Amino acid sequence: MKIGCIGSGYVGSTTMSVLAYKNLKHDVFITDILKDKVECWNSPNLPIYEPGLDKLIYECRNKNLFFTKDSQFVIENCDLIFICVNTPTKEYGVGSKQASDLSFLEGCCNSIKKYSKSDKILIEKSTVPVGTCKSIRNNLQSNKKYHYTIISNPEFLAEGTAIKDLIRPSRVLLGVLEYSKKDIFCRNLVSKLYSVWVNKNLILKISSWSSELIKLASNSFLAQKLSSINTISIICEEVGGCINSVSRGIGLDPRIGNFFLKSSAGFGGSCFEKDVLNLTYSCSINNLSLVSNYWQSVVDINNYTKYTFVKKLYKKLNFNLNKKNLFIMGLTFKKDTDDARNSSSVDIVLEILKELSRVHVYDPKAKNINVIKNSSNVDLVSRLVSPYVKKNYDAVVVLTDWGLFKKLNYKSILQNSNESPFFVDSRSFINKTIIRLLGFKI
Question: Does the active-site annotation cover 271?
């Protein structure tokens, strides 16, 4: 069977690589409107850093995994097509700053409708509002020649652990619009692809409405947990508690668990805020104002967390960041990824730049610092290739929890700084006692 995928971002590239690796008898074709990205996927320099992804691609590429610029070929020749396109938050119009922008998805559907030469099974993996599968079907029904079966199959991978998440998933959702013989047959066909390596008990066969809501609710619950522990961290700062001790004590309760209980200067990434806002908007348009306000507060707390961290840094440096030299450790929104989209680290750096501070950024994987270039003070930013460059730092600020940062020679960093610089660890994962003994101010 020929399997197609529209979209070669994090979701499309990782999902299709694992699918090809586990289903060697099927050919998998990935296409993208970004032609340069397709060229990168066919080169030694892959456009995305994700642990384990390169190994899968090098093993399967041009055997049963193909990257192509020809979307028409993929649509015409593949019976089963995964949709893995971007659904960002709308920037303008009705629902702006909350609702999902489905223009990429709509464009994808229009291409499928235009180039189809047979019936298609469409697996919708992009994170979308509840009811989107029905909208897709309504869009495609104008092409009376062919039948389109829409299956909701949201992704539950996390950047940095995506391959592991796909190989050992916690669950696989397969949601259909109707329980017709055609829908059930097509869903079972997709289920067989996954059951090659996924326990059948983990493949949940449900409605598309439930599937779409599970995805939004899952990410919103995780974001809620992060905002919750960050509020506790702020309380610790005021009353003298140790956030690591408090977090551990909370997490030992099996009803809560210790996952997503690490404090930070706010969550980031391309999913959490977007999905919470999506859920918030869904509640709002269904006249559930109290519920909408509840989920909106998760985002509000996250913004407050970032503001509080900058305020804390400002206070430590005697309420004056002007012309201070700051060593920023970490720009990506989390460790083990090169993704700095919607990173709280970036938001914090942009706030710091407003005070005309000089910012020196070190991140082992962030592809570039273009995300900061919207600042009018971008000339105050430099990208370091080594953490040991002498810059006379007034403060060292840890924003991302890269494991590498635990192994750095902080004595050497201290020697490249001004006398007794501040050390501010937003992740609370560097040993404060050692840092203090070296001569940093905490």
Answer: yes
